[in-house]
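Narrative summary of target 7.
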Amino acid sequence: MKLYSRRFIKPEHLNPANSLFCCQLLSWIDEETAIFAGCQMKSLSYVTKLISEVNFMTSARQGDVIEFGLSLLSYGSSSITVCCQVRNKLTQAPIVSIDKMVFVHG
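Modeled conformation, tokenized:
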């Protein structure tokens, strides 16, 4: 799995428990994987069709740097399937894992 991007966790990304707000993380994941999928498909016309189970393993805190790992699972004539893992850059602790994200031509 290649690592494609990193994000710095800032105060505006936190929930009331002072950990990374899951909706913020899911937004970043969708953006990162969509960019990856578009680059693979050589197209700007695609949409997220499916996101499989999202497995949250550890939390991220203010000041952490997280990194996004993406792998191509399959590539069809009108769709692409990717898996995504997010981890803490410093500790390498896994934060979230998504086994399957499908993008289709829009």
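The beta strands are 2-8, 46-51, 54-56, 65-75, 79-88, 94-105.
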